[in-house]
Backbone:
């Protein structure tokens, strides 16, 4: 049975071993979206960026959505690797 004290001790040991490998959310920055039917490699000047919230339905046939945000990381991130998790349900490219 998996309720014995020995099992809990082993689980705590595993948790401590993997703790440094877990991801944690350090920021949820406000994002902005711009949609176009043009095939662009760079964002043109004068784009009308609109605020966007998680769950926003975007895109369509031959629509490309560009997203932008600014993030200020806390000092605790200094010297650490930081990852972006962008769940767009589509092809994603960062620049």
Residues:
């Amino acid at each position: 049975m998996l309720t014995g004290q020995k099992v809990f001790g082993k689980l705590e040991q595993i948790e401590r071993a993997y703790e440094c490998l877990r991801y944690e959310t350090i920021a949820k920055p406000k994002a902005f979206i711009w949609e176009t039917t043009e095939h662009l490699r760079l964002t043109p000047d004068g784009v009308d960026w609109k605020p966007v919230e998680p769950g926003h339905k975007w895109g369509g046939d031959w629509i490309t959505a560009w997203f932008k945000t600014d993030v200020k990381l806390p000092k605790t991130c200094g010297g650490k690797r930081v990852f972006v998790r962008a769940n767009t349900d589509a092809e994603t490219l960062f620049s």
Observations:
- The helical segments are 5-18.
